[in-house]
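We recall that each integer encodes one residue's backbone shape. We quote one record:
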Amino acid sequence: MFDYKGPRENTSYDGLKIEVQVRTRLQHAWATAVEAVGIFTKQALKSNQGDEDWLRFFALMGSAIAAIEKCNPIPNTPLDKQNLINEIKILSDSLHVGEMLMVYNTTIQAVGAAKDAKYFLLILDPDAAKITVRRYKAKESEKANRDYTKLESEIVENSATQVVLVSVENINALKRAYPNYFLDTNTFSDVVKQVLNGKFPDPIK
């Protein structure tokens, strides 16, 4: 923790504590992926809340990244490399991780660049690698919510398709938080592939 010291003409925040986060490139890629999945699944994954499979997947990938960086693994994850790979593969397949990250990455870049709408209804079909986007102005929020509810009710059980309603504020807030690597989930996707291929060191035991 650090003490804030502002310019001489404005000392109102002086003495307040500041937390500074320092991440490696891979740690940042992991955090970016957590943010992206959290936005689209409407879960507070970064606060360790939400779907148990997604939380477990990111914990396992955290241990794989720790092994690459020669750091201690995440508690309660396999210390055996092959067991770690096997569990990551099972969750990666069931969650459609590769397809989802690709779709999220493309979608957020497109939505973040839009200027003529406030709400976006996204139909994400990772199996078909297809994204359908419906745009709504600020005064059409009720219609956006009605359409969202209708489309969500039409999703076939066990389908990988997702229907998501996001706002410009959500996307721009994410962009402000990650200005240098704005939603580049490609880096994390590459690490997942590397791990599934076994191209990383054994976890520290």
Observations:
- Confidence is low (pLDDT under 50) at residues 178-182.
- The two ends are 30 Å apart (CA to CA).
- Residues 108-177 form one domain.
- The chain has two domains: 25-98+182-196, 108-177.
